[in-house]
Design goal:
- It is built from 23 helices and 21 strands.
- It is of the alpha/beta class.
- The protein has a seven-stranded parallel sheet with strand order 11-12-10-13-14-9-15, sandwiched between helices. It has a six-stranded parallel sheet with strand order 16-21-20-17-19-18, sandwiched between helices.
- Helix 5 crosses helix 6, helix 9 crosses helix 10 and helix 18 runs antiparallel to helix 19.
- It starts with 16 loop residues before the first helix and ends with a helix.
Length: about 675
């Protein structure tokens, strides 16, 4: 068997040096790259009875040329070629535009296959493709590939045929026989063949079934292997807290835990007590009580002689978390420190000395925590909040300040189950899917732009009750490209309207960090009644007195972002409101507005968001955790993803995975793709 990853694409018949350069633009450099570069859709050229074809549908018919093709020129270099074809019991007019060369190739009496758009009223086909004679089964479904540069679809298909003819027998089966039989899957070679050259929709279906499962299984094997090594690596610590002492702390909290909080506390504390290394993701909607859960874990660590660290993305959020933890932990003799870039000079030196001596039990801070001079005496628990805001390297540096400390990631961005399995597949996932009792639902309304004056009136009513409001805009200044209201305009409108009666503040991403912090402090201290801002307030701002969230041009935001913004209000005891101002032009835009008014459940919102936007955009382009699958689709194939995850767990924890013949091909494939090396390196 030849290794197709080592054979250059120039070994394929017809591919020279220039063509190889063009193929490299498509990331095709080897025979394996070419054979596993699958079409993303298929043109359907199957023959159909014209009586069943709807107006303006694409159709393919066979028949006999009845009339001499006539060619008419019009305009500059434009032409129309027309003739009639007898197809079944019907005579059809065929028009080809700007393909005059066809005239010399067709004669009366020729058998032809014609494809194009059907005009039912005129019994006419505007044709895009023809073939003399009848088409074969292999030509009925034609793959359409993603293209770049000079390579055309026909050319790529031709090279793929040549590669498969020469190297098809070298496509190695990597799935064990028992898995093929369990799910009735076709072989890897057949799947590759049918994805490129399907003879029927059934071929395509079976090939897709096979490759979707394979892609998900290979990815999940990588995730589970990493998870196993993370859990079992030497040096994992056991935080052996006193159960009764921890129970006493939980009972002393100012409010009872929800059932969901109790469940995740048990999961987290179970990990901490074990000798395995904790690597857990804690998901919880805005306001679900993640900070309290974090305090319980930090208390357990501190009372067992370990230090804890909580890293958050912004200074304001760090201060809020530190204040909350001081309120919760101080009376239990657990010391909490705060370290941000604002802590300087003598104060900073004293803080670092106390930390190194072990006199600070819990340190809260921004990325300042990972600076070189920050030394812990005995770091046992690392918590990062909104972890996707930190790079992998930043999170790793914090972990390395201890000897394999337990790690807990927290996020208020509800992540659909399919994405959690995929992007965070190497982690255990805990979900708080219940809000504390007594919390009022935020009332959400969608209004049109012409109602702005009424919305401002509503804001004024809340301000007169002593409350505060946010107004969020998508842009800072005017843009010629997008006709959307901007933050500066809205700020000026409010100031002119209120004329000193109420105070408005302005916040956006171009301000210096110190200025942003000052504005947020002023809003927090109620020196500002209404904060006009871009989306910089999206995560981690907690002003319980704010009861109004107005989002201007709301259809310009994604659903997850709208939900995060809405979560900035509803944090106090008073009724809160979210007003979406939008005139969406697209169906997707209207759908977003409707979803927001129908549900406050972040997990429902996130599932719908995934359906509308697709997995690639959910975290933004920079999110590296989500792989590019060639055939599989996480949204539509989520059931297969869950099956593949369970199978991967079974395989990785199977006694014979690393040494039996049954798994030899799968091991070789994973090894060739560097999976084992990656895990060792990490």
């Amino acid at each position: 068997m030849k290794n197709l990853n080592e054979i250059p694409v120039t070994d394929v018949k017809g591919v020279g040096a220039e063509t190889a350069k063009a193929l490299k633009e498509l990331d095709i450099e080897t025979v394996a790259d070419l054979l596993f570069n699958f079409p993303y859709r298929y043109e359907d050229y199957r023959l159909r009875d014209l009586s069943e074809v709807a107006h303006e549908e694409r159709v393919t018919v066979q028949g006999e040329v009845l009339t001499e093709p006539t060619l008419a020129y019009y305009g500059r270099k434009k032409s129309k070629l027309s003739f009639r074809v007898a197809s079944g019991h019907q005579v059809v007019k065929v028009d080809f535009f700007n393909q005059p060369y066809i005239k010399g190739k067709l004669e009366v009496g020729d058998e032809v296959t014609i494809s194009g758009k059907w005009d039912k009223g005129r019994a006419q086909i505007t044709a895009s493709k023809y073939k003399k004679g009848h088409q074969t089964a292999e030509e009925a479904l034609e793959g359409v590939y993603r293209l770049k540069g000079t390579i055309r679809n026909k050319t790529l298909l031709k090279f793929t045929v040549a590669a498969f003819d020469t190297y098809g027998d070298d496509i190695v089966e990597i799935l064990p026989e028992k898995w093929l039989q369990k799910y009735q899957l076709i072989s890897r070679k057949e799947a590759v063949q049918f994805l490129h050259f399907p003879k029927s929709p059934e071929d395509l279906k079976q090939a897709r079934r096979r490759m979707v499962y394979e892609e998900f299984l290979l990815f999940q094997l990588k995730m589970q292997l990493f998870r196993k090594i993370e859990r079992e690596r030497s040096g994992g610590i056991s935080i052996d807290y006193d159960v009764n002492d921890l129970r006493h702390y939980i009972e002393s909290l100012p409010f009872p835990l929800t059932d969901a909080q109790k469940r995740v506390v048990n999961e987290i504390c179970g990990d901490m007590k074990s000798h395995f290394h904790m690597n857990r993701l804690l998901q919880g909607d805005v306001g679900s009580g993640k900070t309290v859960v974090a305090s319980i874990a930090l208390y357990a660590a501190a009372k067992s002689g370990f230090q804890g660290a909580l890293m958050v993305p912004t200074e304001i959020l760090a201060e809020q978390h530190a204040n909350s933890l001081v309120d919760l932990l101080q009376s239990f003799d657990v010391t909490v420190g705060l370290l941000t870039s604002s802590v300087k000079g003598k104060r900073r030196r004293e803080m670092l000395a106390l930390l190194a001596e072990g006199q600070i039990d819990v340190l809260v801070g921004t990325h300042a925590l990972i600076q070189e001079e920050v030394t812990f005496q005995n770091l046992g628990l690392v918590i990062t909040d909104e972890q996707h805001r930190f790079g992998v390297q930043q999170r790793r540096v914090l972990r390395e300040k201890g000897t394999y400390p337990d790690v807990l990631f927290m996020t208020a961005t509800p992540i659909p189950r399919t994405l959690a399995i995929t992007a965070f597949g190497e982690m255990d996932v805990s979900i708080i899917d219940e809000l504390p009792a007594g919390r009022k639902q935020i009332e959400t309304y969608w209004v049109k732009h012409q109602m702005l004056d009424r919305v401002i009136g509503f804001i004024e009513q809340e301000i007169l009750k002593g409350r505060q409001a946010y107004v969020i805009c998508p842009l800072i200044e005017e843009s010629e490209k997008l006709d959307v209201q901007n933050a500066i305009d809205v700020y000026n409108i409010l100031n002119n309207k209120w004329n000193g009666k109420h105070s408005a503040g302005l916040m956006h991403g171009k301000l210096l960090p110190a200025d942003k912090d000052q504005i947020m402090r002023d809003f927090n201290d109620h020196k500002i009644d209404c904060l006009v801002s871009t989306t910089v307030v999206e995560v981690g701002v907690n002003v319980p007195n704010a009861t109004m969230m107005v989002i201007y041009d709301a259809d310009r935001f994604g659903l997850a972002q709208l939900h995060q913004l809405r979560g900035r209000v509803g944090r106090g005891a008073e009724q809160s409101y979210c007003i979406l101002i939008a005139d969406p032009k697209t169906e997707v835009g209207k759908e977003r507005m409707t979803i927001m008014t129908e549900t406050n459940d972040g997990f429902v919102v996130s599932e719908r968001d995934l359906e509308l936007r697709g997995p690639g955009d959910f975290f933004g382009k920079k999110q590296s955790g989500i792989p590019e699958f060639k055939v599989a689709d996480m949204v539509h194939d989520y059931r297969v993803l869950e099956i593949a995850r369970q199978d991967a767990v079974d395989i990785i924890y199977h006694d014979g995975f690393l040494d039996t013949e049954e798994y030899a091909s799968l091991r070789a494939f994973l090894e060739a793709n560097g999976v084992f090396d990656e895990q060792k390196l990490d």
